[in-house]
Write a structure and sequence with these properties.
- By secondary structure, the protein is of the alpha/beta class.
- It has four domains: 80 residues, no CATH class; 115 residues, Rossmann fold; 74 residues, Dna Ligase, domain 1; 144 residues, D-amino Acid Aminotransferase, Chain A, domain 1, CATH 3.30.470.
- Helices cover 42% and strands 16% of the residues.
- The chain contains 15 helices and 16 strands.
- The chain has a five-stranded parallel β-sheet with strand order 3-2-1-4-5, with helices on both faces. Strands 6-9-7-8 form a four-stranded antiparallel β-sheet, covered by helices on one side.
- Helix 6 crosses helix 7.
- The longest helix is centred in the first third of the chain and has 36 residues.
- The chain is globular, with a radius of gyration of 24 Å.
- The two termini are 45 Å apart.
């Protein structure tokens, strides 16, 4: 903490923001209640609601081989879990939802019409570990005769990997979760980076540093005495629980002495090593991939824009390069099942051309793949799964194809091609979160104006941007047929 700072000076702004958010929630509660009640009243008469009802009935009557499956989706509070629950419901299956609900505050998926029954789970903790959480999920699986489990919970992926191994060993339920070894590798950026590098894939230059000298060599690749370094890095402690565990930007200071002093404050040692990674200037993208028995079965890529998701056209050269990169990486997994989300950094000159180029050859895609850099990975469901809304039935059936004895291809599932990779429709809308947009774009800019940080013109431009998003984009959580 800086000498002139005090606990009260740092707590006050946070308390003010928290109080403002609570006041906003209270102010909008009557309006949100009215919208929910109105949506519930008109929902049965909307075209989409009628289509979903008709499709569910049609599936059950059109084929003697179809039978509803029982699917558990944990983590239906976030938009990604709710999107998957709705996908299985629209495909005609029975959905059980579960989440943590701290302080007994209902999550948004608790009352979803796509969920038949909801359960509250115990969150893993340092004192009890994962035992209570795993027992909750296991009991739920046995009680509801769950056949397929997908987790979207905001916990360590390794906790879900541990739970999945126990559940698959003790029940007939299938879990969409990578094995514990792969999950461990993907959960840590250093291990993911080195595993991708071993496969010959492009990653930023990275180092594990255990001393101040090694850290200086990472900052000054030509040597500390070679002059001012222009390399920007991200740096984090590898040790779990360290206050420096989160990645932060590290820009070399004007002089070697000042840079060395900053490194000295981080104090890298063999017992507390740090991981440095070169910051690639350009655009950041994220992907969502579904892997079933070692095969890539669903894929989408999109720019990592705060609070909104817009799918890259699947046929674009850049999307194809990311698909090829992902396929090359998962080829080392074997016949495993789970989710994989990769974060890429792409130089602006490459991203501009790649996003707007179509119909390129395999060799051109291979060349483009060498120019994109995977900087991190996440072995779980990405929020980008909301972009599959127009392909929800197809996505659900792809998941269920892993179950033994699942219905054969036929009229009930539209003669789905088992070798086709499920991707969002080209006409899929962009998604945003209306609450976040209102708070950051409308009220956040208003507070900034009152504090003298921005002018009226900036405020007006921010409000116009929010209005445009509200009119063109689609909210990721609210659906008129499932308010």
């Amino acid at each position: 903490m800086a000498p002139n700072s005090s606990p009260s000076s740092s707590i006050f702004p946070c308390s003010l923001k928290t109080s403002a958010i609570i006041i906003l929630c209270a102010f909008f509660t009557p309006f949100c209640t009215f919208v929910a009640a109105l949506s519930s009243a008109i929902s049965p008469f909307t075209k989409l609601s009628k289509h979903i009802k008709h499709h569910r009935q049609w599936r059950q009557k059109s084929s003697s081989t179809f039978r509803p499956r029982t699917v558990l989706v944990t983590g239906v509070g976030p938009a990604k879990g709710l999107a998957l629950a709705r996908a299985f419901y629209r495909a005609g299956h029975r959905v059980v939802g579960a989440d943590f609900e701290p302080y007994l505050v209902p999550v948004c998926g608790h009352f979803s019409s796509s969920i038949e029954i909801f359960y509250r789970l115990s969150r893993p903790s340092r004192s009890e570990g994962t035992a209570t959480y795993i027992q909750d999920v296991l009991s739920l699986v046995l009680k509801e005769k769950i056949e397929l489990w997908i987790s979207c919970l905001a916990i360590l992926a390794t906790d879900d990997a541990e739970a999945a191994e126990i559940i698959e060993r003790r029940t007939r339920c299938k879990a969409i979760q990578l094995d514990h070894t792969s999950t461990e590798t993907l959960s840590q950026t250093p291990s993911f980076t080195y595993s991708a590098k071993e496969l010959g894939l492009s990653v930023p230059e990275s180092h594990i540093v255990t001393s101040e000298i090694e850290a200086l060599n990472a900052v000054y690749p030509a040597g500390p005495r070679a002059g001012q370094s222009k390399r920007n890095l991200t740096i984090s402690s590898i040790r779990q629980g360290s206050p420096n565990h989160n990645f932060e930007a590290f820009t070399p200071l004007p002089t070697l002495g000042k840079t060395a002093e900053r490194i000295r404050k981080l104090s890298p040692t063999p017992f507390s090593p740090f991981f440095t990674q070169e910051s690639i200037p350009g655009t950041e993208y994220t992907t969502h991939t579904l892997i079933l028995k070692g095969k890539l079965t669903a894929f989408v890529a999109c720019p990592s824009t705060p609070n909104n998701y817009t799918a890259l056209p699947y046929s674009s050269a850049l999307s194809q390069a990311m698909l090829l990169y992902t396929g090359a990486y998962i080829s080392s997994f074997g016949a495993t099942t789970g989710h994989l989300s990769l974060t890429f950094r792409v130089p602006d000159s490459v991203s501009t051309i790649g996003e707007n180029t179509f119909g390129v050859s395999g060799s051109q895609i291979q060349e483009l793949m060498s120019k994109i850099y995977a900087v991190s990975a996440y072995p779980g469901v990405s929020t980008a799964v909301v972009l599959f809304s127009d392909e929800s039935e197809g996505l659900a059936e792809t998941y269920l194809s892993i179950l033994p004895g699942h219905e054969p291809l036929g009229i009930a599932n539209g003669h789905r091609d088992p070798y086709r990779v499920i991707t969002p429709e080209p006409t899929v809308l962009s998604y945003y979160w209306v609450g976040q947009k209102l708070v950051s774009g409308v009220f956040g800019s208003l507070f900034a104006l009152l504090r003298g940080q921005v002018g009226v013109r900036t405020l007006w431009r921010s409000w116009i941007d929010v209005a445009g998003i509200l009119l063109v984009y689609k909210d990721a959580t609210w659906e008129v047929w499932d308010p």
